[in-house]
Amino acid sequence: MALAKELEQIETVAQEPVIVAEKLDLTFQTNDGAVQALRDVNLTINKGDFVSFIGPSGCGKTTFLRVVAALEQPTGGVISVNGMSPEQARQARAYGYVFQAAGLYPWRTIAKNIKLPLEIMGFSKADQDEHVERVLKLVDLEGFANKYPWQLSGGMQQRASIARALAFDAEILLMDEPFGALDEIVRDHLNEQLLELWNRTGKTIGFVTHSIPEAVYLSTKIVVMSPRPGRITDVIESPLPQERPLDIRDTPEFLTVAHRVREGLRAGHAYDD
């Protein structure tokens, strides 16, 4: 009985909603008129989920992430992050954000780039050093603290960017197509490392991608979106195990999920307003 109760408690924690969007709309006002980026988006992301957003360019994937991060304001519906508004969640340092480009300052060493948010937040020097050492280990960049960005490969720079987003130990990691500009071999390696990082930390991850194999390989949940105005055409719960070697991509289970994602993308393109 005690074991059953403990398992139930673990499952409850795992299903704890972290990001909840209900009937979310966002319309931009431009010189050429109104542009609706998101329409009637309903989505729940639970604690520990790895959720990928996939869809054609302009479908609102990045816009949704930016709404979560309080970088854009919705014009309709509601959204909460850890039970707070996105603005309150930002003030509570609930998330780290990794952009498409690494965005490292070339005049600062890797350690000092990672320290930057900690400096702004007023962490002591000792705490900054401890956090930097910890996250460099997490992203396998030990020994590179005193290097400058231009001395690192593109993949290593992106790992340093992830380390910076993890530096203040936020529970949520938002990643906007961080590996899109990298070659396939490097991308595969970073996908493996990101899964290992997720398994070790238990972070809740929102991940934007254009790659079907990447979305299927990484995710516990895949959100398929339609062309503008961005709508969710499918939410796919992955049946794949948490431990995923790269060759899982050749299995029937993987290919079945990838086929469903592809069909969802086609259905979205065929959507008649």
Topology:
Elements: H1 2-14, E1 17-30, E2 33-46, E3 50-54, H2 61-68, E4 76-81, H3 86-91, E5 95-98, H4 110-121, H5 125-138, H6 154-166, E6 172-176, H7 184-201, E7 204-209, H8 212-218, E8 221-225, E9 232-237, H9 252-269
Helix pairs in contact: 4-5, 4-6, 5-6, 8-9
Question: Could you explain how this protein is built, in words?
Answer:
The protein has 273 residues and is α/β, with parallel strands linked by helices. The chain has two domains: 19-94 and 171-268, Rossmann fold (3-Layer(aba) Sandwich); 103-169, no CATH class. 40% of the residues lie in helices and 24% in strands. It has helices at 2-14, 61-68, 86-91, 110-121, 125-138, 154-166, 184-201, 212-218, 252-269; strands spanning 17-30, 33-46, 50-54, 76-81, 95-98, 172-176, 204-209, 221-225, 232-237. Helix 7 links the parallel strand 6 (172-176) and strand 7. Helix 4 (110-121) packs parallel to helix 6 and helix 8 crosses helix 9 (252-269). The protein is globular. The model has no long low-confidence stretch (mean pLDDT 90).
